[in-house]
């Protein structure tokens, strides 16, 4: 579920500005192929590269059969894995070997370099997100956390599960290097009014069913960008639905994303590409039966 980023997802330059408060901007996701599986990519998009420090959202499924993502490297980001159905085995170069199931969180912090592989069996439905690490931590070593149980809180006609950050006094124990939040919403028919931080921007992604935010009806494959300046958002569901609310203070560091790397400069990515391609030890070893991924050359390195 860890799809490479290409220039089809995001140009090199950061998007400028944020919509005014109370605007809702609905962005269409893009269909991408990740290891032979059809995925909806909601971030990055050309018009919106980040929501807070959230910089990548891939929605896989529902009802995808099997998954085999061979060892591949990351730098400068955290991977957040969240399942609605099925199970995925995570293995990484720290020696972690962890099965994740619905309701649980896998959080891998790459720092200056980590590698991992993901194998899923049976029917899968889930999402993988990346969080950009700030300069304060992105050169640190890698880490991995598994949270088998996460805090939940009732909000109107929804049960909110807090993956990262906090909501209405329910605080996740997951590491976070910026002030971002990530919440899963299991909605029943009716309304949930979620409290927001006016200084943060937010995005809503629907994973199952459909919801309405103001005049906009959203189903899977679209991201509603809510901007900053709100202290709450009402979400209406006509029946059972699942969604994720992602938020955080606008990420003010320049980002350069290429393949599985989140960096600041082309030189950093060129060096990561060299290290992975030459297997010089920076990313360590993953004990996996799957073949390691071959990295494409960065476009600026061609010719
Ligand atoms: Mn990955």
Key phrases:
7-stranded antiparallel β-sheet, mainly beta, binds manganese (II) ion, 303 residues
Written overview of the protein:
The protein is mainly beta and 303 residues long. The chain has 1 helix and 23 strands. The chain has one helix at 266-278; strands at 25-28, 30-34, 37-43, 54-74, 77-92, 97-100, 105-109, 114-132, 143-147, 152-155, 158-164, 166-167, 170-171, 181-187, 190-195, 201-208, 211-213, 216-218, 222-227, 232-237, 241-248, 256-258, 261-263. The strands form 5 sheets. Strands 2, 3, 4, 5, 6, 7, 8 and 9 form an 8-stranded antiparallel beta sheet that branches. A hairpin with a 2-residue loop joins β17 (211-213) and β18. The protein is globular, with a radius of gyration of 18 Å. Mean pLDDT is 93; it is low at 11-21. It binds manganese (II) ion (MN). Manganese (II) ion is lined by residues 2, 72, 74, 79, 116, 260.
Radius of gyration: 18 Å
Number of helices, where a helix is a run of at least 4 consecutive DSSP H or I residues: 1
The helix/strand class is mainly beta
Main sheet characteristics: 8 strands, antiparallel
Number of strands: 23
Approximately how much helix is present in the residues?
A: under 10%
User: How far is it from the N-terminal to the C-terminal residue, by CA?
Assistant: 31 Å
Spans of at least 5 consecutive residues with low confidence: 11-21
Mean pLDDT: 93
Give the helices and strands as they follow along the chain: EEEEEEEEEEEEEEEEEEEEEEEH
Shape: globular
Bound molecules: manganese (II) ion
Proportion of residues in extended strands = over 45%
């Amino acid at each position: 579920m860890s799809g490479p980023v290409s220039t089809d997802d995001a140009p090199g330059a950061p998007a400028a500005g944020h919509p005014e408060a109370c605007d809702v901007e609905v962005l269409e996701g893009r269909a991408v192929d990740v290891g032979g599986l059809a995925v909806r990519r909601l971030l990055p998009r050309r018009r919106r590269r980040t929501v807070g420090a959230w910089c990548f959202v891939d929605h896989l499924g529902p009802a995808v059969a099997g998954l085999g993502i061979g060892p591949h490297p990351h730098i400068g980001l955290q991977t957040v894995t969240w399942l609605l159905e099925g199970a995925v085995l995570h293995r990484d170069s720290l020696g972690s070997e962890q099965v994740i199931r619905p309701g649980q969180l896998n959080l891998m912090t790459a720092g200056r370099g980590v590698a991992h592989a993901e194998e899923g069996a049976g029917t899968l439905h889930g999402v993988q997100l990346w969080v950009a690490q700030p300069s304060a931590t992105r050169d640190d070593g890698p880490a991995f956390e598994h949270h088998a149980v996460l805090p939940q809180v009732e909000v109107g006609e929804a049960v909110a599960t807090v993956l990262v950050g906090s909501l209405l006094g329910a605080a996740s124990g997951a590491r976070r290097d910026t002030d971002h939040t990530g919440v899963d919403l299991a909605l029943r028919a009716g309304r949930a009014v979620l409290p927001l931080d006016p200084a943060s921007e937010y995005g809503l992604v629907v994973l199952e069913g459909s919801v309405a935010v103001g005049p906009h009806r959203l189903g899977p494959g679209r991201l509603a960008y809510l901007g900053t300046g709100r202290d709450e958002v009402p979400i209406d569901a006509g029946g059972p639905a699942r969604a994720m609310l992602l938020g955080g203070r606008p990420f003010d560091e320049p980002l350069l994303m290429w393949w599985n790397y989140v960096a600041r400069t082309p030189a950093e990515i060129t060096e990561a590409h060299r290290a992975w391609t030459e297997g010089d030890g920076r990313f360590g070893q993953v004990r996996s039966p799957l073949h390691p991924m071959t990295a494409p050359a960065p476009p600026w390195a061609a010719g």
